[in-house]
Prior knowledge:
It is elongated and about 90 Å long. The protein folds into 2 domains: 16-122, no CATH class; 124-343, Orthogonal Bundle (MetI-like fold), CATH 1.10.3720.10. It is built from 14 helices and 5 strands. It is mainly alpha-helical. Helix content is 69%, strand content 5%.
Amino acid sequence: MGLFILRRTGVMIVTALCLTFIVFFLTNLYPNLEKLAKTQGNFRMSDEAVTSWLDANGLLQPLPVKYGQWLGVLPGWTRSGEDGVTGRCFIGAKPASEAAAEPRYCGILQGDWGYSRVFKDDVSTIIGTRLGLTGKLMFWVLVLMVPSALLIGVLAGMREGSVTDRSLSTFSIITTATPEYVSGVIFIAIFTSSAVGLKWFKGTAASAMKDANFENFFLPVLTISLYGMGYIARMTRASMTEVMTAQYIRTARLKGVSFPNIVMKHALRNALIAPFTVIMLQVPWLLNGVVIVETLFNYKGFGWALVQAAGNNDIELLLGISVVSVVVVLLTQLISDVGYVYLNPRIRIS
């Protein structure tokens, strides 16, 4: 197991480097850099002024050099001017003596995630705050989504073809077929709009960032949960149906084991192997789902920060968000693989 995890960690590092390099390449295309220069300076800047601004900020260096500096494996750039020395590793112009005392390496590996030119704050601070808000949202989504989906799937798969199975399967298909931006708008129109009259939820998701309660936090949680709930429930139902027709289940029935004991002691563990993988894969999906829901409900979390960074061409923040997203996806896949082995003893790692 240790060697397996070590190998997977090595593959994860290579994958993370490849994915972040692709994002770095796309965000550092010249049209994006030109837009950044005009946003920070003047939209009527000439081409010469744009080139001068980009060169003064170290953005005209070769792409591998900039990527190495961003990672922290190459020393950061410095420029000498009339006001002093400017560089990647410090803010503002400084005398040559003070600039020489600053660290030469300042990248992701050193914990320096860059500076957001839009939010006027360190990228690490922004991501930490927004990721904490999204983490709270994702936690309550998983608390609502996973047990509900497993319960629906198990109940539907216990008696294939029954009225209960058909009703719960129809509900699962409907929730999966309804995207978040549709269900979210419907919930807002029905439960918060004064036009309909069902003002059950008076709070707003923006207020939930400081003080989350049932009234201001349930609708965004429900919106995300419903979409993922149907998918997990259908996978659980299919797995449960397959297990209930297995030979050892028939043997247990012939021995006179009660139906509840058959389900709980024999069928449930094997039926949860496939849904476990699906549940772990829902975590990366939640990062995509929160982008829509947080924007729709004005909940300023990780997804909202991604939209703001993309809309305002905030390159450093986009790169920081991409690192977090890649790490979350790769870690959840590793946990899924390890957990799959423990749930299914027939699998052996060679």
